[in-house]
DNA sequence: ACCATCAAGG
């Protein structure tokens, strides 16, 4: 009788959907990414548990059924019903992204049980179609089929992906009524879904606290939720609790713990978990290892990140991207050379790689290289990637090519708030205050809800362009009209706005009237303004406050000394200098870089060793003469030349032209 | 048939 099982099973399959089955069986076998071995996608589930993983080489249908009949453990093979086989087929279609095939098989079914319905819900969810998942879920209810724990956790995934806030709450209630809320998968899916929503962490935490038996999954879910919500401190705290309660150390718990340390910028904790990963042998797991490199970089320990990276025996695309992003974050030119290393190993960059490299170009003002990267990204078909486009807008603006920035902005089809913000900030830093304001109003016209950062952008644009009244107007209306409440950094921005234009008294009054304690950004802005307008007394007061807040701030001492110098308070000036020297502080080495043809050259102040530096220095001297002449000419025309920051940029540009 | 880990923007 049992010998019949295999062939019978085949017959059943064929009765349901003969055509599809042939296709499904005859095609290339699916590769298991973890083992590198091959499974039949459709048939694996039917026999998988019976044959210890049932690892098979390529088999035809005939061979497969033959093997079934010869199986050593035929008692474990169960005949499957036509409906179950069809459900497998649906799942297989979904797994390969053939949504319409899956749908057709489902529609042809003479009857549908909860498993078949759930396959539809979860199939749509895993193919990033939460709306269709929800539609199936509703249709299931209309058909009078009651969902089970599997359905509930699947639809919760869809609620998370589709940001169905109310749907999540409704399904939560449903899960209580069905009595499935207590099941591991359901409450973990609930935590995950809630955590994705604005202020959803409270709900997520409540679900978490109600769990009586917390699995490793529950813990990783809640810690990951805190990390995603941006609360690194809470994530690290939760992480400690997780280990205290003796959760197992597996690749999941370790990697999320490392991410939590990174989010909290807690290097000590990160090192501890790194050690634990080494000890348990999980450090060779790629996700774990990649997050270790990332953690070191986010905890400002680039050298440890580099060390770890160089010691990794295996690297994947994420490893490279993580390290490139780390170097970009640190503002190092090495991000670009690492890209070359990566390409030399025939690893193809993806959109993450491009975003980091473009960001590096922005930081390093590599316009020419940035343009090439832009071209490369377009050629590789990353035309629609949000992150890349926003990075490009930012890059062109930071490289001084605001018009190109605008061109990119205009051709972006789906502009996000970030795109608008990048463009507004781009205008702002170049002093195009009017354009920034115009763009901001245009954005509001499109119905985009502004956030704190875009307000900061437009207000600082006003500040740079001297549009004080306009800036104040934005500041005063942001909370009342748009419900965006200013934080301490905003006050710094507005103090800067008032201060730059010399309205220091108002700036000081604003600080007095602040609803919370002013932070260093506020006093820093005031201090800068005092320096600019040579207000010694107020500046000294601000500098003192600054030093109370950040006694390590070498920059404050520098500005303070400048203020004393500006007020000719030489005794005080000398005291500050002495204090700085006494604390053993040295100013960071000044460094400039320019892009010459395809290379970025770095110059340290006073450096003469390399031939290019010597040549550049020569050209610079020559240019100095010319500029002196120009300046004299300007003076003779009565123009103002303050010899300030502008000269640095123009020098670089001129040197590029001179050498190129 | 369901839940959890690694990389990107202002």
Q: What would the keywords be for this entry?
A:
globular; two-stranded antiparallel sheet; TPR-like_helical_dom_sf; Pentatricopeptide repeat-containing protein; PPR_rpt; mainly alpha; repeat; Serine Threonine Protein Phosphatase 5, Tetratricopeptide repeat; DNA-binding; PPR_At4g14850-like_plant; 660 residues; disordered N terminus; disordered C terminus
Can you describe what's shown?
The strands form two sheets. Strands 1-2 form a two-stranded antiparallel ribbon. Among the domains are: 2-95, no CATH class; 487-582, Serine Threonine Protein Phosphatase 5, Tetratricopeptide repeat (Alpha Horseshoe), CATH 1.25.40; 591-659, no CATH class. It is 69% helix and 2% strand. With 660 residues, the chain is an all-alpha fold. Helix 13 (216-229) runs parallel beside helix 15, helix 14 (232-244) packs antiparallel against helix 15 (251-263) and helix 23 (386-398) packs antiparallel against helix 24. The longest helix is centred in the last third of the chain and has 26 residues, at 611-636. The protein is globular, with a radius of gyration of 31 Å. The chain has helices at 5-16, 18-26, 44-48, 61-70, 82-95, 99-108, 114-126, 130-142, 149-161, 165-178, 184-195, 201-210, 216-229, 232-244, 251-263, 267-280, 286-298, 302-311, 317-329, 334-344, 351-364, 367-379, 386-398, 402-411, 417-429, 433-445, 452-465, 468-482, 488-500, 504-513, 520-532, 536-549, 554-566, 570-582, 611-636, 646-659; strands at 30-31, 38-39, 591-596, 599-604. A hairpin with a 6-residue loop joins strand 1 (30-31) and strand 2 (38-39). The protein has 36 helices and four strands. The chain binds one DNA strand of 10 nucleotides through helix 5, helix 7, helix 9, helix 11 and helix 13.
